[in-house]
Amino acid sequence: MLSTLNADKTYVTLTPAGVFEAFSQAEPTEEQLSLQALLSQHETMLASVWLDTYSNFWLDDFLEKGWVEKLSLFLPAPNLPLDQFLPYVVSSLSGKRRAAIGSDEGFCLTRTGYSQEEADMLSVAAADFSGFMLRQKQRGWAVESQAISFFQQVDLLIPETSFVFLWIDGSGYVLIIDGEPLTNNRAFVELVWALKTSGLRFTN
What we know:
Layout: E1 11-14, H1 16-22, H2 30-36, E2 45-46, H3 47-51, H4 56-65, E3 68-71, H5 82-93, E4 99-103, E5 108-112, H6 116-138, E6 147-150, E7 161-168, E8 171-178, H7 186-196
Antiparallel strand pairs: 1-2, 1-3, 4-5, 4-8, 6-7, 7-8
Helix pairs in contact: 1-2, 5-7
């Protein structure tokens, strides 16, 4: 348990599962906000800094659930504009090396591998599905999934396209992934960190 370690020398950050938990809701809980705080700075946060605001119990629980991991060294946040950073990580996110990021209003914010027309069309489609999920949740249907995938073949082995929905600082985003979605890696965490960190959210 982290509470038995030296919190002044232990860094903590989100795992890919922690990113899904932290950024999956338009109205996050206090626990989800505390997870989001781990990606709010330009470098990984010391456990002692996080514990100045939040409880040992929460951190131990997050570690046990696999939402948070401990690091012995700090890592810097991505410092490239989003349109330059996405090509850097896309091969780690998409089985076909094509991805885009859209807003919940249907605008394509950045893309790599897709044509502008393709990215615009997919961003609009993703916004439609995001709105559908929110409306159904308001009606009482507990929509637990943070992603929608579309398959070309009936055996549903590898999706053709996936929409991963994220809410960051009150704004809705969708990560559009072509082919197999490879979100269980550090590249996914770094991409959301880039979106979360001030100055990296939008392209110029």
